[in-house]
Design goal:
The chain has a single domain, classed as Dna Ligase, domain 1 (2-Layer Sandwich). Helices cover about 25% and strands about 40% of the residues. Strand 5 and strand 6 form a beta hairpin.
Length: about 120
C-alpha cells in the first residue's frame, strides 16, 4: 500500500493509494495545490527573521515499498523535491524540468523493476 501525507501548517491529511502511479499522481496534485495557495510573509521568532523562502509552508510525503520522497513548498510558493527518510537529499531538476517533474522522475526510477 502506498501512502501520501499532506501537511499544510498544522493540518495533516493522510491518503492511501493502491498503485505507485496513483500515489504519484495524488502527491503531485496535492503539491501543486499547496504551491498555488496563499503566500506567507516574514516570520519573526526570538530575534530571528525567517523569509518566506526559508519557511516550509507545506509538505507532501510519498512512501511505499522502498520509496520515501516528497515535495516541500516554501512560503513564497516555490517547490523543492527530495528523497530520503532520515536524511533528506534535494532532487535537482534537470534541464527544463520542474520540481514536480524531478519528483516524478526519481519516484518512477525507484519503483521500476529491471528484467
Amino acid at each position: 500500500m502506498w501512502r501520501v501525507k499532506v501537511r499544510s501548517g498544522p493540518r495533516v491529511e493522510k491518503h492511501r493509494a493502491p498503485t505507485p502511479a496513483e500515489a504519484l499522481d495524488l502527491a503531485v496534485r496535492e503539491a501543486r495545490v499547496l504551491a498555488n495557495g496563499p503566500r506567507r510573509g516574514t516570520v519573526t521568532t526570538l530575534a530571528r527573521d525567517y523569509a518566506p523562502q526559508q519557511q516550509v509552508a507545506g509538505r507532501v510525503e510519498l512512501s511505499g515499498p522502498g520509496v520515501r520522497a516528497g515535495i516541500d513548498v516554501r512560503g513564497d510558493g516555490e517547490a523543492e523535491a527530495w528523497t530520503g527518510r532520515v536524511r533528506r537529499r534535494v532532487v535537482e531538476p534537470q534541464e527544463r524540468e520542474t520540481p514536480f517533474d524531478a519528483f516524478r522522475r526519481v519516484v518512477a526510477q525507484s519503483t521500476s523493476v529491471d528484467p
